[in-house]
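Practice record 12: protein with NAP.
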Amino acid sequence: MFAVQYHRYGGSEVLAREEVEEPHAGPGQVRIAVRAAGVTPSDWYLRSGMFRDIVSLALPHIPGMDAAGIVDEVGEGVTGTAVGDAVFGILPAADHGGATAEYAVLEAWAPKPRSWSFEEAGGAAGNIDTATRALEALAAAEGMTLLIEGAAGGVGTITAQLARARGLTVIGTASEGNHDFLRGLGVIPVTYGPGLADRVAALAPRGVDVVLDAAGKGSLAELVAIAGDPRRVVTIADFDADRHGVRFSRSEAGESPGWAGLPLAADLADQGRLTVPLHAVFPLAETAAAHDVSAGGHARGKIVITVP
Ligand SMILES: NC(=O)c1ccc[n+]([C@@H]2O[C@H](COP(=O)([O-])OP(=O)(O)OC[C@H]3O[C@@H](n4cnc5c(N)ncnc54)[C@H](OP(=O)(O)O)[C@@H]3O)[C@@H](O)[C@H]2O)c1
């Protein structure tokens, strides 16, 4: 099959389209003919080599952790999914990639909502998993107010909508150019940066109940002060979490508490209550450009690659 992969760590110029061996669905997995794959900051963090001491990749490595497509192999023990089904889902976490390819294996998936294009579905699963995990870790429940740091990005936009569907009020930080965009998602926008606590206090005089840091830009001390207790804060992106007594939520190999969010999100999508805002869509041949846009740090929603 064809895939975009890299043989050595480096800038986006190390990515190349090559012929590689096909993966096959193992027990409990399905294989899809990929129609679209999501781009996440981890794809270029890993490619750059900055995590080489923590995550050992078997090079060459195919990036991309989530995808949508048509099932063409069903692994042993899988029920309820058949060859020809359109699905969206997550690649095995232990592989750290594999989606920018003609075929990919999924370890968690749900039927593609009819209301989503393959591009929207291709960029959805990883963020739904992350958002669901984070909302569970925060025990986010109806009536609460949630503050999301970095609400306009891939994770932020999905978390905000899933929280709204659970009946929470959501305040989200973004640069001013993204405030109308956030309002369109039912989020009360606020500008990030120094003085955030005062601005949030003006918007939520009774305070916020829980906080998700989806940006990892060094604001945990202020976010803890806003929440009033580090146990009400979860970060997915700040490696200083321990120092602040804050829980860091990450995807682990094996079943994630976020997987249950996939079919629920698909139902919400078909009710018109969950969209996947797309910042940009690139063809597979322009995977390097997709990584570079992600590395710019200002995606409004999700960056997606179409295959072939
Ligand atoms: N632990 C996990 O399981 C997990 C899973 C997925 C992602 N992550 C991590 O979570 C982070 C976000 O991922 P993503 O996919 O949502 O990224 P993304 O789509 O690239 O989001 C970027 C967003 O960050 C906002 N931003 C930039 N500077 C900011 C600042 N100083 N304060 C607050 N927000 C700021 C931008 O908003 P403006 O354009 O308005 O500035 C933009 O909307 C990344 O570090 C990623 O690696 C972790």
